[in-house]
Amino acid sequence: MAKGSVALKKKSDTRRDAAKAAPPQPADDRPIIALDLGPAQLSPAMQAYFQKCQEKLGFVPNVLIAYAFDAAKLEAFVAMYNDLMLAPSGLSKLEREMIAVAVSSQNRCYYCLTAHGQAVRQYSNDPLLGEHMVMNYRAARLSKRQRAMLDFAVKLTNEPWAVEEEDRAALRKAGFSDRDIWDIAAVVGFFNMSNRVASATDMRPNAVYHGMSR
């Protein structure tokens, strides 16, 4: 073996040994929040819900663990989330996730951008779209319907007092019904609330989200 090869091998071995000796880095998602709130007793329904998350996702989303200090708040959060994001609607699940990320991008919410950015990648099967939503939805190749929806969501987030009939008319022109407009507004409102709670408590997303659906 040439001297140069021996030297390279020694350097590689040294780096490997140093890596083994280095203390493990703390996970980005621990602690989950910056507040010292002890867990409450989960109801049988919430125990089953956590178990379902574990079986389906392989983990329990940290937002649920964060809310678990108060059983009533946890159940209200889960019920509202499931109704807005998963129940039948004129909006697809992908569209609702796109709203979540566009709103969270305006609010710079680390938790929701990470978790719901992953959901956009999953539902769209398009990692690039997930990145666009996080960074700047206007850079994405959107349909006229999607662009109208997100423009409305962002205006409602940044200037809620400025929303008027012409904004609702633009949504109708893009193909949304009045019920759809309600659903858009409800998703926008929910994530503005969630963003603020997550930011106030330094809520950390499960680190596993970063590598999913890429």
Topology at a glance:
Blueprint lengths: L2 H19 L22 H14 L4 H6 L3 H15 L7 H15 L2 H15 L2 H9 L8 H15 L6 H9 L4 H24 L13
Helix pairs in contact: 4-10, 5-6, 5-7, 5-8, 5-10, 6-7, 8-9, 8-10
Report on the structure:
The protein has about 210 residues and is an all-alpha fold. It folds into 2 domains: about 45-85, Up-down Bundle (Single alpha-helices involved in coiled-coils or other helix-helix interfaces), CATH 1.20.5.810; about 90-210, AhpD-like (Up-down Bundle), CATH 1.20.1290.10. About 65% of the residues lie in helices and about 0% in strands. It is built from 10 helices and no strands. Helix 4 packs antiparallel against helix 10 and helix 5 (about 95-105) runs parallel beside helix 7. The longest helix has 24 residues, at about 180-200. Residues about 1-10 have low confidence and may be disordered.
Keywords, please?
Single alpha-helices involved in coiled-coils or other helix-helix interfaces; 214 residues; globular; single chain; disordered N terminus; mainly alpha; AhpD-like
Q: Would you summarize the structure shown here?
A:
The two termini are 40 Å apart. This protein is 66% helix and 0% strand. The N terminus is likely disordered.
CATH homologous superfamily (4th level) name of the largest domain? AhpD-like
How would a crystallographer describe the biggest sheet?
A: none
Runs with pLDDT <50, length 5+?
A: 1-12
Radius of gyration (CA) equals 21 Å
- Approximate helicity band: 55-70%
CATH topology of the largest domain: AhpD-like
**Helix segment tally:** 10
How far is it from the N-terminal to the C-terminal residue, by CA?
Answer: 40 Å
